[in-house]
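FAQ

Q: What does a record look like?
A: Structure on top, sequence underneath. For example:
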């Protein structure tokens, strides 16, 4: 064999090895259809989907779907798995509660057992959910459960219990997990309850989710994205149409949240649009564990959003919020650009047992809900907040702010606000607030009413809108 032939064969061998190495390195895609999933919208495909995920986990493989509509109950993503839901694929949630076994979790600030979500990432790491397909919570049945129960409970003085006793299915849950990537253009719709809950987790990226919870009715409490006692979370490029909080930070409720005492911290939320929802950005009402190092920027909110910046808590929540930075918001037709209340929704926030309640037979989670919180411990404390570059048009009132005389909102800084509103609104229980380079254009000529406050400086005088000029004839 001559030297040229040897070199040629060596080159061929090296090329073959490189191709083999590349093939070995390429992640394998497992299709749920090969594990028995039908995708015909009527066959329950839960077991087949879960089997494919369990098979993919040891080798960190990708699970995907051929085009179709897959009816499923709760599925559980495992460490190392990528779940790809491509365009042309819909996962639709079963409407049978037995398809969502109960696990320990936290709901609206209280630790309890609850039906699992449709998509669950629990006690896992290095998980990806992506694709341009759709996950449909099919949630109308859970909306009805809640509305029917609330109609019975409210006259009995149990409005506060409705949200906990009506066990509604969340669309997705990330709990006790890390290194999670979630998004890629996925559409999440018709959630039975909260759409994406990030609980007790860290290092999670949510980038590119479309949330549509107003198809087929208005589902109660269908929050968009709730970041709950978690850290190192980055949310971007969300497009949200929800029926409650759109982008929301939470950290526990009342005695149970104070017991757990886990903050939400090191959070980035940016470059997103809110079409409908309670606010562009919400902090609370579950504030017991506190909030630290939060930055929110480049949000757009349309007329379906009730507020721009919404801080809410209650005198039984407690918690400390510091170093929150919110800037570069565009609010069009949003009712109240700056809204803060530390006495939010009393009929829900304050759980009181009606006379004659049998404490021996009541649900166990009613105990922490109705456990009194000492007054000093229950006051929420917000301080060191900076809000700037807010452009708001078509608002009803510029400010709606109130806290407590013994726990004022302290050390807030506002600059480069440009708010056009029908009336100026009010600020109460503020301490050491400063305004600079701000503009208020108020249709009725009113000034911001400031009460029970100290050292509020630089608040701009309201100016009247410029009259429209009639066209020349």
């Amino acid at each position: 064999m001559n030297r040229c032939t040897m070199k040629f064969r060596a080159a061929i061998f090296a090329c073959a090895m490189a191709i083999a190495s590349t093939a070995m390195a390429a992640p394998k895609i497992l299709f749920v259809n090969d594990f028995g999933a039908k995708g015909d919208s009527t066959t329950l495909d839960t077991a087949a989907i879960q089997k494919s995920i369990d098979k993919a986990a040891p080798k960190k493989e990708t699970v995907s779907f051929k085009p179709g509509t897959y009816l499923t109950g709760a599925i559980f993503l495992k460490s190392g798995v990528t779940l790809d839901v491509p365009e042309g694929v819909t996962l639709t949630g079963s409407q049978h509660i037995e398809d969502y076994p109960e696990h320990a979790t936290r709901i609206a600030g209280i630790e309890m057992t609850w039906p699992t979500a449709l998509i669950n990432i629990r006690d896992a790491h290095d998980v990806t959910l992506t694709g341009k397909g759709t996950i449909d919570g099919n949630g109308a049945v859970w909306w009805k459960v809640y509305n029917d129960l609330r109609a019975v409970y409210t006259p009995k003085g149990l409005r506060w219990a409705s949200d906990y006793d009506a066990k509604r299915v969340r669309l997705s849950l990330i709990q006790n997990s890390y290194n999670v990537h979630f998004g890629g253009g996925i559409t999440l719709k018709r959630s039975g309850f909260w759409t994406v809950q990030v609980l007790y987790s860290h290092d999670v990226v949510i980038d590119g989710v479309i949330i549509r919870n107003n198809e087929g009715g208005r589902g109660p409490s269908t929050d968009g994205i709730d970041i709950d006692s978690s850290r190192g979370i980055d949310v971007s490029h969300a497009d949200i149409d929800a029926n409650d909080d759109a982008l929301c930070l939470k950290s526990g409720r009342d005695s149970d949240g104070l017991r757990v005492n886990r903050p939400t911290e090191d959070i980035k939320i940016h470059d997103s649009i809110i079409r409908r929802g309670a606010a562009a950005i919400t902090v609370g009402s579950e504030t017991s564990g506190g909030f630290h190092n939060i930055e929110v920027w480049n949000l757009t909110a349309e007329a379906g959003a009730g507020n721009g910046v919404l801080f809410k808590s209650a005198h039984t929540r407690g918690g400390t919020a510091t170093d929150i930075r919110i800037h570069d918001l565009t609010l069009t037709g949003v009712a109240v650009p700056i809204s803060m209340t530390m006495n939010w929704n009393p009929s829900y926030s304050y759980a009181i047992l009606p006379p004659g309640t049998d404490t021996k037979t009541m649900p166990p989670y009613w105990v922490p809900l109705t456990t009194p919180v000492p007054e000093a411990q229950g006051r929420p404390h917000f301080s060191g907040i900076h809000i700037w570059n807010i452009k708001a048009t078509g608002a009803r009132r510029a400010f709606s702010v109130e806290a407590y005389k013994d726990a004022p909102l302290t050390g807030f800084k506002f600059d480069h606000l440009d708010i056009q509103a029908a009336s100026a609104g009010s600020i109460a229980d503020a301490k050491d607030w400063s305004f600079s380079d701000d503009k208020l254009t108020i249709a009725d000529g009113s000034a911001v009413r400031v009460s029970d406050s100290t050292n509020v400086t630089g608040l701009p005088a309201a100016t009247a809108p410029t009259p429209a000029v009639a066209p020349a004839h």
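Q: Is there anything notable about this one?
A: The chain has eight helices and 30 strands.
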